[in-house]
Design a protein that fits this description.
Helix content: 25-40%
Order of helices and strands: EHHHHEHEHEHEHHEHHHEHHH
Shape: globular
Strand content: 5-15%
Largest sheet: 7 strands, parallel
Number of strands: 7
Structural class: alpha/beta
Number of helices: 15
Radius of gyration: 20 Å
Length: about 400
C-alpha cells in the first residue's frame, strides 16, 4: 500500500543524499583537483556514508523498505543515494512526481562568494550532470539544474546546457551576487530561455544569505541543531531563511522582470511561507508610497502583490499553518512538499498539512496538492504525469 492512494499529489521538494565525493566524478581532472583542495572531504560524512552503504547492502535491512518508507531518513532512506532504488521509493510514497534537489551542493559549496568564480561555474555544470543522471531512471523524477548568477555572461550557457541535459527546472541563489542585482537586464536572455522552454526558475534553502556568525556569540552555550551540528537550522538561524528571497523576488517584480516575461514562473522551495502574506502587503505599501516618484513602478502591469500571485509559488513547511497562509495570500500560491528523505519533512507530512487545511475549500486543497504544481512546472512536467 502506498502512502498516497486514490488522489494525485505532486511533491515540490525532494533530495538526493549524495555520497561524499559523488560530484567529483562529474568534474574534469583539473577542476577536481582544485575542488578537492577548496572543499576537502569530511571524515564524519564519509563514516556516515560507509555505514549507509553497508546497510543498503544488507538483505535484512532492505526487508524493511516498505514498512519504513517515511521513517528512515537521510542516508538510511530508500533511494536516497542509489538512483536504481528511487523508483521503488516513489511507488511506495505514491507521489505522481518529485522535484529533485541536491543535498551537498545547495549553496554551490560557497564558491560564488569566495572569489572562486571559474570553479563555481564548473561545479554548477558538474552538479547539473549529476542530477540529470540520477533522475534519468524514472520520468517522475524531475531534475533541477543550478545556474549561478555571479557571471552574467556565462549564466545563459549554463542554463541552456542544463536544459539540454534534461533538467526540468532551473535553480538560482536567492542571495544577491556581490556586484549586480539578480534583476540586472543582462539576465533577460536567461529568463527568456526559461520562459520559452516553459520551465520555472526556483530558489531553494541553502542559497540564501546566512545569519551573521556573531549572533551565536551570546555568552551562552552553543546551541546544536537537530542534525547534531552547529551549522544548519536552529530557532534563530531559521529567522534568516526568507530574507534573501523576500528581497530578490521583490526586486524581480519591481524592476519589471516578471512583466517582461509574464509566462515565467518562480518558486521558493523549502524557504517557508508564513512570511508571504506580510511580504505581499509590504510590497504594496512600498508601491503606494513610491509610485509617484518611480517610473518603474508606474510601468508595472499591476500591484506587486498581484504580480506575485500570478507568477510566484511557495512551499510551506509542515510545521507552518498552511491554511492561514493560503487564506491570507492566495489559493494559487502554495505547494505540497515532503522534503524526502530529509529529517525536516517529518514522518507524515500530509497528515500535518491536512490538520492545518481544515476549513479550506476542496478546490484550494486540490490546488495545494496538484494544480499549483502543474501550473508552476509548465512543460517541465509531461502531461502524462499530471494525474496518477
Amino acid at each position: 500500500m502506498a502512502y498516497v492512494e486514490a488522489h494525485t499529489v505532486h511533491d515540490a521538494d525532494s533530495h538526493v543524499m549524495e555520497l561524499p565525493g559523488t560530484i567529483n566524478g562529474y568534474l574534469t581532472a583539473k577542476d577536481r583537483r582544485e575542488f578537492e583542495d577548496k572543499v576537502p572531504a569530511s571524515p564524519a560524512e564519509e563514516n556516515w556514508a560507509r555505514e549507509a552503504v553497508g546497510l543498503h547492502d544488507d538483505p535484512e535491512f532492505r526487508a524493511g523498505d516498505d514498512a519504513n518508507i517515511l521513517l528512515r531518513k537521510n542516508y538510511h532512506a530508500l533511494g536516497s543515494f542509489r538512483s536504481a532504488d528511487r523508483p521503488r521509493a516513489l511507488d511506495l510514497l505514491g507521489f505522481s512526481s518529485q522535484l529533485v534537489f541536491t543535498t551537498t551542493a545547495l549553496s554551490n559549496y560557497g564558491l560564488e562568494h569566495t572569489g572562486e568564480v571559474a570553479l563555481a561555474l564548473a561545479v554548477a555544470r558538474a552538479h547539473n550532470r549529476m542530477m540529470t543522471e540520477f533522475c534519468a531512471v524514472d520520468e517522475r523524477l524531475l531534475a533541477t539544474g543550478y545556474v549561478p548568477l555571479v557571471d552574467i555572461e556565462k549564466a545563459l550557457g549554463i542554463a541552456r546546457e542544463a536544459l539540454d541535459l534534461g533538467c526540468k527546472a532551473l535553480v538560482i541563489p536567492s542571495r544577491c551576487p556581490a556586484d549586480h542585482s539578480p534583476s540586472h537586464s543582462g539576465f533577460d536572455p536567461l529568463w527568456s530561455l526559461a520562459e520559452e522552454a516553459g520551465i520555472p526558475i526556483l530558489f531553494h534553502v541553502g542559497g540564501e544569505e546566512k545569519m551573521h556568525a556573531a549572533y551565536a556569540e551570546n555568552g551562552l552555550p552553543r546551541v546544536r541543531d537537530f542534525h547534531g551540528g552547529d551549522e544548519n537550522f536552529t530557532s534563530t538561524s531559521f529567522m534568516t531563511i526568507p530574507l534573501a528571497v523576500w528581497q530578490t523576488m521583490a526586486t524581480l517584480i519591481i524592476d519589471g522582470v516578471c512583466d517582461r516575461f509574464p509566462d515565467l514562473k518562480f518558486g521558493a522551495i523549502e524557504l517557508g511561507a508564513s512570511w508571504v502574506p506580510s511580504w505581499l502587503k509590504f510590497m504594496d505599501a512600498g508601491f503606494g508610497a513610491f509610485r509617484k516618484g518611480e517610473e518603474r513602478l508606474q510601468k508595472l502591469s499591476a500591484r506587486p502583490s498581484e504580480i506575485a500571485r500570478r507568477q510566484f509559488r511557495v512551499t510551506p513547511y509542515p510545521h507552518e499553518d498552511a491554511g492561514w497562509i493560503i487564506e491570507n495570500s492566495s489559493e494559487d500560491m502554495c505547494l505540497f512538499s515532503s522534503d524526502y528523505p530529509h529529517v525536516e519533512g517529518g514522518r507524515n507530512p500530509i497528515k500535518r498539512f491536512n490538520a492545518t487545511l481544515e476549513g479550506v475549500s476542496d478546490s484550494a486543497k486540490r490546488r495545494f496538492y496538484r494544480d499549483n504544481f502543474i501550473d508552476l512546472m509548465g512543460r517541465g512536467l509531461d502531461p502524462s504525469l499530471h494525474d496518477s
